[in-house]
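U., I forgot to send this yesterday:
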Amino acid sequence: MSSLDAQPAVEPSFNEGLSMTVDRALRHLDLPPGLAAQIKACDSVLQLHFPVWLDDGVYHIFRGWRATHSSHLLPAKGGIRYAVCVDQDEVEALAALMTYKCALVDVPFGGSKGGVRIEPGEHSERELEAITRRFARELVVRGYLSPGGNVPAPDMGTGAREMGWIADVYRTLHPEEINALACVTGKPVTSGGIPGRIEATGRGAQFAVRELFRRPEDMALAGLEGDLAGKRIVVQGLGNVGFHLARYLSEEDGARIVGVMTREGVVLDDRGIAVAELRDHLDRHGGVAGYPGGRTDVDADAFLATPCDLLIPAAIEGQIHRGNAASVQAKLVLEAANGPVTFGGDEILRQRGIPVLPDLYVNAGGVTVSYFEWIKNLSHIRFGRLDRRLDEGRGERIVRALEQMTGRSTDAALRAELMTGADELALVRSGLDDTMRQAYDEISETFHGNDAIDDYRTAAFVVALRKIANTYLDLGV
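Result:
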């Protein structure tokens, strides 16, 4: 019997698989007795049933959850998702993943997650607002939503609009709270949000890919060489994360998006897919039928087996599993979604020698920029307001000095670059880029510095768990 055949017959649940992954990483750490169990334990889970008056003139009962996995650092942080697949196991797993993710990228938050079991597309805007406001109120009055205790953010099925409604509910209930806007991140920029938050997860994933391609020794493990230009990339999911990531990789880095899978269908084109055009086609026609570029008569089940350099699952969890991982033909898998590769699927990819850059790292751009927004709300000042003009003045003096020394006029493009002070968006992107670089450094150092660690996922969890353990030990708990 081969090692692939020896896989367990039943795939563990998302939460069980995450726990097993953590256990694998804990074997590489020497923690005091009981500390590992404390780190893994979920602090609390709130389950709600709440009524909302819908457009049909009837009260409907909705079911929602908010899990706080860890409050070793406050506030606990994590998104709120609206989807029919939401359940307690998923919410607990995602909350735990947030704890480890925040630790990995040095964001001083605990982990939390929430969700409501609904299909957003089946509700009017008025109904969604009523559902969101009622859910937010329930969270506030039970202590699961506050600037210093538990701070939600957008996730699957939610966005800036919903976060704006949540912030308004909190301010209504706590009009005396000067930091009320910090109760939630991912808000509209005009309502206390921050530029770059919408695309933050996709942008962070792009920075992760760039960092990989700066490391020849890591690229060699995946059989890759050169730069991103022309690399064949397959993206599963064209939502907020997948769309921005695919667009940035193709338009800014020259990669070739040869496959895209959405809820509406599949498109394959080895010449490269124009991501923005495809998104526009989906918005106008509601599906891939009639899209002029590439094949659309593709079996969705075979999509993940498309030969490529990078396979990027950017939709929902559990997409690569023990039933299909053996057919994956990518050189490297990049987890842009949360938990897209199951524990069983990950074991098969490891045995086949296909590296996986884990969600713990790749997906961390959203919470990183959420941290920036939270800091902005607490400081009550936008980034760059104090120093932008100072930087511009300093740049102007540098240009003048160069012209005096050389006796020549400075190139117009260089002059503009030197004399432009960084605005808030530029500072957000700079901070995100630095965060992703430093996290990769730590993962790579752990991966290459421990002969017993043979995959990026374990290395990332070792880094995160070590930081969490040190926090507990520093606190003396």
